[in-house]
Amino acid sequence: MESAAGEVHSQADCAALAEFFWIGWEGAVMCARLAGNRQPLDRFAQGFLAGLPR
């Protein structure tokens, strides 16, 4: 059932999602440093949020 408010699904594994977020975010930070801009950070955040189970 999808939430009208956009909450994460009640049965989502929040610990696994948090671990996945931090692993990906650290990679995006390194890419942003190499690229010299924030595009990798924006792309990661957009993709992560789009992939959350709702």
What this model shows, in words?
This protein is mostly helical and 54 residues long. The protein has a domain at 14-50. The chain is 63% helix and 0% strand. The chain has helices at 14-35, 39-50. The chain is elongated, with a radius of gyration of 13 Å. The termini are close together. The mean pLDDT is 93.
Rounded to an integer in angstroms, the radius of gyration calculated over CA atoms is 13 Å
Q: What global shape is seen?
A: elongated
How confident is the prediction overall: mean pLDDT? 93
Count of DSSP H/I helices: 2
Approximately how much helix is present in the residues? Answer: 55-70%
Compute the number of strand runs.
0
Topology, element by element:
Blueprint: H1 14-35, H2 39-50
Keywords:
mainly alpha, elongated, 2 helices, 54 residues
In short:
The chain is an all-alpha fold. It is built from two helices and no strands.
